[in-house]
Amino acid sequence: MKIQNLEIKENLVRRLKRIEGQVRGVQTMLNEERDCQEIMQQLTAIHAAVQSTSRIFLQDYATTCLAEMDQETRVHPGSAIQIMREKMVQDMIQLLDKSP
Predict the structure, then answer these.
(1) What is the 3-state secondary structure of the chain?
(2) CA atoms within 13 A on the CB side of 36
(3) What confidence score (pLDDT) does residue 99 get?
(4) pLDDT tens column, 22-63
(5) Torsions phi, psi of 5, nearest 5?
(6) Average model confidence (pLDDT) for the chain?
(7) Which class for 49: exposed (0-12), middle (13-18), buried (19 or more C-beta within 10 A)?
(8) Judging by beta carbons within 10 Å of its beta carbon (0-12, 13-18, 19+), is residue 48 exposed, middle or buried?
(9) Which CATH code is given to the segment(s) 6-98?
(10) Cα separations (Å) of 69 from 35, 79, 90?
């Protein structure tokens, strides 16, 4: 699946670049032997940013895949699309369970 919505794609890339900067900042903080509490605060912010980015990606993924499955159902009524849809939803839930 490719991200078809350019606005969502740009938003995700922007968020990932911000996360990348935060990670570099923590590396610098470690090298500078900054206070543990400050470092932990930044790691917590990175964690929240990754979760938020994951949710946006997953929402777009689910929306796109479900739309494609709906289209397939119209073309091939009575096919195994319902089973595929249920598996996809289960897979997405498992992915969410694995997220930090």
Answers:
(1) CCCCCHHHHHHHHHHHHHHHHHHHHHHHHHHCCCCHHHHHHHHHHHHHHHHHHHHHHHHHHHHHHHHHHHHHHHHCCCCCHHHHHHHHHHHHHHHHHHCC
(2) 0
(3) 63
(4) 999 999 999 999 999 999 999 999 999 998 998 888 888 888
(5) -85, 110
(6) 84
(7) middle
(8) exposed
(9) 1.20.58.1000
(10) 51, 11, 15
Considering the entire predicted model, what is its pTM? 0.72
Whole-number Cα distances in Å, 30 to 7, 11, 21, 91: 35, 29, 14, 37
Q: Which residue has the higher pLDDT, 75 or 58?
A: 58
- The answer to whether the CB of 59 falls within 8 A of the CB of 14 is no
For residues 87 and 62, give the distance between their C-alpha atoms in angstroms, rounded to a whole number.
12
pLDDT at 62: 80
